[in-house]
């Protein structure tokens, strides 16, 4: 049976001994911190607690006008965790709402996003009584925060109803953005602006270029296949015509519609 390795627990004492023997001239900065906050000496890993998923909803009591918050806890069966030496997964209600929205709208993930200006808690600085916020681009996160606000602040609101309300507002604002974009482009073109080829034109040009390259490759492969077949049956080797004699030796089939 091997001994327990306690080197990590004695790292502060090892640094002090090296300073005392002259091996190092200056003590590291973390020596004082380890003196005040020493590492744990418990060598047995305890089971991580099983956290409950808490949801808060606004509901009304029958025959009364007051509004109360009802806490719903998802029951968990006590069991031994399968990943004992890994941290417990932290779950929030927004995660499930976000997953459902982007599952129904996968192309929203393709829109460019600015991550440098986001600190992860920007939603706390906005008033989600409405979907569109000043200084924030409309995206899927706006729908998630709007749905969460409806669930926590509107009486007797269900998850599906909040999702429908947030989606309806989101579609209306997206349609408004598209109309504003088309009107701005038409106004700019009317005053002499030239935006160049569109994405569709560029894509068709690249597709035609690749198609012409494929036709050249397919023509060469067909010629090689004919030569191999002729050599296998014992026929005389095919002679490739010159470019100037191509019209005299072989006529190309007419194109469709001629």
Automatic annotation (TrEMBL):
Major location (coarse): mitochondrion
Listed name of the protein: 37S ribosomal protein S25, mitochondrial
Keywords: Mitochondrion, Ribonucleoprotein, Ribosomal protein
Record-level GO cellular component terms: mitochondrial small ribosomal subunit
Classification lineage: Eukaryota, Fungi, Dikarya, Ascomycota, Pezizomycotina
Segments passing through the bilayer: none
Span list, region Disordered: 234-258
GO molecular function: structural constituent of ribosome
Protein localization: Mitochondrion
Biased composition (Acidic residues): 240-258
Quaternary assembly: Component of the mitochondrial small ribosomal subunit.
Superkingdom field: Eukaryota
Family assignment from sequence similarity: Belongs to the mitochondrion-specific ribosomal protein mS23 family.
């Amino acid at each position: 049976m091997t001994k327990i390795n306690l080197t990590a627990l004695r790292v502060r004492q090892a640094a002090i001994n090296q300073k005392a023997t002259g091996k190092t001239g200056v003590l590291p900065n973390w020596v004082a911190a380890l003196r005040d906050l020493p590492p744990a000496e418990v060598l047995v890993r305890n089971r991580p607690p099983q956290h409950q998923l808490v949801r808060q909803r606004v509901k009304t009591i029958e025959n009364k006008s007051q509004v109360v918050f009802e806490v719903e806890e998802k029951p968990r069966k006590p069991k031994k965790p399968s990943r004992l030496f890994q941290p417990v997964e932290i779950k929030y209600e927004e995660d499930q709402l976000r997953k459902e929205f982007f599952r129904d709208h996968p192309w929203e993930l393709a829109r460019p996003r600015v991550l440098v200006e986001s600190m992860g808690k920007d939603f706390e600085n906005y008033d989600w009584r409405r979907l569109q916020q000043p200084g924030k681009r409309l995206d899927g996160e706006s729908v998630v925060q709007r749905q969460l606000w409806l669930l926590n602040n509107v009486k007797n609101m269900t998850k599906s109803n909040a999702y429908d309300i947030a989606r309806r507002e989101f579609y209306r604002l997206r349609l408004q953005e598209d109309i504003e974009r088309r009107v701005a482009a038409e106004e700019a073109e009317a005053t002499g602006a030239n935006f160049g080829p569109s994405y569709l034109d560029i894509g068709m040009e690249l597709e035609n270029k690749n198609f012409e390259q494929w036709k050249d490759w397919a023509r060469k492969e067909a010629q090689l296949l004919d030569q191999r077949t002729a050599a296998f049956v014992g026929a005389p080797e095919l002679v490739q015509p010159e470019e100037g004699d191509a019209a005299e030796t072989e006529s190309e089939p007419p194109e469709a519609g001629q």
